[in-house]
Design a protein that fits this description.
The complex is a heterodimer. By secondary structure, chain A is mainly alpha-helical. Chain A has helices at about 1-20, 25-45, 55-70, 95, 100-120, 125-145. Chain A is flat. By secondary structure, chain B is mostly helical. Chain B folds into two domains: about 15-175, no CATH class; about 185-295, Cytochrome Bc1 Complex, Chain D, domain 2, CATH 1.10.760. Chain B contains twelve helices and five strands. In chain B, helix 1 (about 1-15) crosses helix 7 and helix 2 packs across helix 6. The radius of gyration of chain B is 19 Å and the shape is globular. Classes of the chains: A mainly alpha, B mainly alpha. The interface of A and B includes residues 41 and 131 of A.
């Protein structure tokens, strides 16, 4: 009986937690960007020779990025605009230029799909493809992310 | 203090002629347009002199780096500067200049008619450039398409609107010295130092300035408030408040791809600079990294934000 109650309580919080995350696109998009940063950090470490080159791991990390970029632009509903007291680095012009914003996300997705494919060709092949990913990230951050000081 | 005042007064009246002794000319140099193009990229000439990509005169993106028609605006605490046309157009660009005019402009900040340029044109860095590189750069500029393009006048507040006042600034900040390699350092570090302090003019943003607008040499490359008002320029000395935790490979990789060690990307005005750095040779990026790791670590003056 105790086990069942414990299970129900755990399940309740787990479900609530998921529900809360789904209701919180700001948190979701921040998590996706954090994930992208971690994935690209790993790729960078391999390209710099700080970690042994692992084509599968690199491809997996870049596929994570391209997957994230599918979901990312869907997380900008009107309800998740910047507002007083809301901590977000999203600039309000995203909502004025949604088509361009989505195109820029798509650009990063395409570049990371290509980079994931290039990973199998070895370190130099991936190195040649990673610049386009960085360019995509920069292009979008420049327009739509609050400047980091 | 009296000494400073008398320098200022003398300079204001006479101009900084004494400070600008020319180096004796070495053997004649056969100009290389190819190296000139490389120096144009390393110096970021296009990033400022090319037209902005959009209607916004301060759009960091450019239309075409190799069409330096001018028109970009730099909004600073002194007022707004408009970047001039440096295509070889005779009327509105620099088509009527001689090589000597060009070298004087870029190393002394003086126009062919003797007017002072504002140091938004980073001639206090460019004065360090090798004369051969300048001759090559001039040869390259002459190959560009001449474009007729008239740029608005600067709109500066008093007293900055008086160009003559720049004689003081020049007396304090120009010494007319080209880059001298440090014999105690490797050829690689010296090449990096040349690129950073000369054409790359990294210190124009990354070195903090005193109240007279001069770079504080003891705090070289340790970052400071952005000259364009918004934000704070990062410390790029090997201090823990700077890039102390970065390896040389991290610097090379960031300059090549735009990725920072934490997986984020370079932003702001540096994004354009990074794209220029990505076009240099791998050896030059490695030289820049080696030099940056060799400069004295300086703690950032940046105020705590939290």
């Amino acid at each position: 009986m105790k086990q069942i109650i414990a299970f129900l309580i755990t399940a309740f919080f787990a479900v609530m937690g998921t529900a809360l995350a789904q209701d919180n696109p700001i948190k979701q998009r921040q998590d996706l960007m954090k994930g992208n940063g971690d994935a690209l950090k790993l790729v960078g470490e391999m390209l710099k020779g700080e970690k042994p080159y692992d084509a599968d791991a690199a491809a997996k990390a870049l596929t994570k990025v391209s997957g994230a970029m599918d979901e990312f632009p869907t997380l900008f509903p009107e309800s998740a605009k910047p507002a007083p007291g809301v901590k977000t680095n999203a600039k309000p012009n995203i909502w004025e230029n949604m088509t361009d914003f989505k195109a820029k996300a798509e650009e990063v997705k395409t570049a990371s799909v290509k980079a994931a494919e290039a990973a199998a060709g070895g370190l130099d092949s991936l190195k040649g493809a990673i610049g386009a990913v960085g360019k995509g990230c920069k292009g979008c951050h420049e327009e739509y992310r609050v400047k980091k000081n | 203090m009296y000494r400073l005042l008398s320098i200022c007064l003398a300079a204001f009246l006479t101009g900084p002629a004494g400070a600008l002794a020319q180096e004796p000319d070495a053997e004649p140099h056969q100009p290389s347009v190819e190296n000139g193009r490389y120096i144009y990229i390393a110096g970021g000439c296009g990033s400022c002199h090319a037209a902005p990509a959009s209607e916004k005169c301060d759009d960091p993106k450019t239309k075409d780096d190799f069409k330096p028609v001018g028109g970009r605006c730099l909004k600073t605490g002194f007022g707004t500067f408009y970047v001039p046309n440096i295509t070889p157009d005779k009327e509105t660009g620099i088509g009527g200049w001689s090589e000597q005019d060009f070298i004087k402009a870029i190393t002394e900040g003086t126009s062919p008619s003797g007017e002072n340029y504002y140091p938004a044109f980073p001639y206090s860095s460019y004065q360090r450039m090798k004369r051969t590189d300048l001759v090559d750069l001039w040869a390259f500029l002459k190959t560009l398409e001449p474009v007729s393009s008239i740029v608005p006048d600067h709109t500066l507040s008093f007293p900055y609107s008086i160009r003559r006042g720049l004689n003081i600034w020049k007396a304090l900040h120009l010494d007319g010295k080209t880059f001298t390699p440090d014999p105690k350092k490797s050829a690689k570090v010296n090449r990096g130092a040349y690129l950073v302090e000369g054409p790359g003019h990294c210190g124009e943003c990354h070195t903090p300035r005193n109240f007279l607008g001069g770079k504080i040499e003891t705090k070289k490359l340790s970052g400071g408030p952005s000259p364009e008002g918004k934000g704070y320029i990062p410390n790029i000395t090997p201090d823990k408040s700077g890039i102390g935790s970065w390896s040389e490979k991290d610097i090379v990789f960031a300059l090549e791809t735009g990725f920072l060690p934490n997986g984020d990307v370079i932003g702001g005005t540096m994004a354009k600079v990074q794209e220029n750095m990505a076009q240099l040779t791998a050896e030059d990026r490695e030289a820049i990294a080696a030099y940056l790791k060799s400069v004295p670590p300086v703690a950032s003056d940046r105020p705590k934000t939290n």
